[in-house]
Amino acid sequence: MEFNVHYQVLGAVFVIAAVFGAIVNKTSFCTMGAVSDWVNMGDHGRMRAWLLAMAVAMGGVAVLESAGVISLGTETFPPYRTANFSWLRYLVGGALFGIGMTLASGCGNKTLVRVGTGNLKSLVVLVIAAVMSYLMLWTPFYEQLFHPWVSATTIDLAQRGVPSQELGALIAGLSGLRPSRGFNAAVGGVIAVVLLIHVFRSAEFRHSVDNLLGGISVGVAVLAGWYITGSSFGQSWKEYAEFATVVPSRVQVQSYNFISPMGDATRYLLSPGDFSLVNFGVAALAGVIAGSFLYALASRSFRIEWFVSIRDFVNHAIGGVLMGVGGVLAMGCTVGQAITGMSTVALGAILTFIAIVAGAAGTMKYQYWRMLQED
Predict the structure, then answer these.
(1) Beta carbons of 316 and 115 less than 8 angstroms apart
(2) How far lies 321's CA from each of 30, 306, 375, in Å?
(3) Contact between residue 124 and residue 313 where contact means Cβ atoms under 8 Å apart
(4) pLDDT at 314 over 80
(5) Angle at 257 between CA 256 and CA 260, to 5 degrees
(6) Where is 155: in which H helix or E strand?
(7) Is-cis flag, bond preceding 78, omega within 30?
(8) pLDDT band, residue 175 (cuts 50/70/90)
(9) Are 69 and 228 in contact (CB under 8 A)?
(10) pTM higher than 0.85 for the full model?
């Protein structure tokens, strides 16, 4: 088999994801844990690590786009910068995902990492979330249940003279200025600097090797995904796909996202002989699990874990359903929107991030209240 540019892309995506999975395992980088630490203990360490990942990815995209090294545009997968601003979709999907990841004891990325460590509870969550993601992406499920109200509440920014939902384009449109790539990049750069200042104000955080390593590594991984698919290398990949006898799946500018790829992985497993269905997202999922598994073996932390009760199973199962539905509805998860999407400085990503945190925090508060009532 010829190791053409398509397999080079998938290979690079897998290797980066494997390193990603190993580091997330080692450092306990966890977005649900970040909200939990903040809500339950007032500890902001892992929340700062999450913000650091955003800042690294956002600042990197601003620099690379300004230099002309990458070009993201509005046709990425998913379309973060689209002019069709589906505000309610982001809010509802983000809230559902936030509730779901709390019930399932981790977001999409953490679920994959835990699968690699032998956690069978997370494997059940992965299967359920993957099936729901598949239903949302590849069956009439989304069209029948969600599309009518999503379409009815979508604002077409292009009709108002704003070409995309990037903050730079929105600011320029509201100010009567002409939107430009340089201005958009400048806005992203300023936000990244503000985030970095906030993150590094904490002396405790500055001395936390795991939080620093986790945040920087995840941000760099997202930036690497954009480089692979949005640079001249990515252009070669797209040109290859255009002339391929069998067109491979999702040959688009994209970076790491972990919910829609679950649906794509399910689609591939239903037709395992069709290797054209093995795409960026499927390679990323496999890479994260493999990297986490290898680290678990090396650190002797591999442990089989199962549900402690029927109630525990039900909570995780409901969590998997909400993560699969909410993640696709919001067009991303705590990595796919709240880091990868945030790196594009899209308003939808900001709304999704806020909704995820609100959904998770509200669920945690409710769980604590219910625990007190049962005591």
Answers:
(1) no
(2) 20, 19, 29
(3) yes
(4) yes
(5) 140
(6) strand 155-156
(7) yes
(8) confident
(9) no
(10) yes
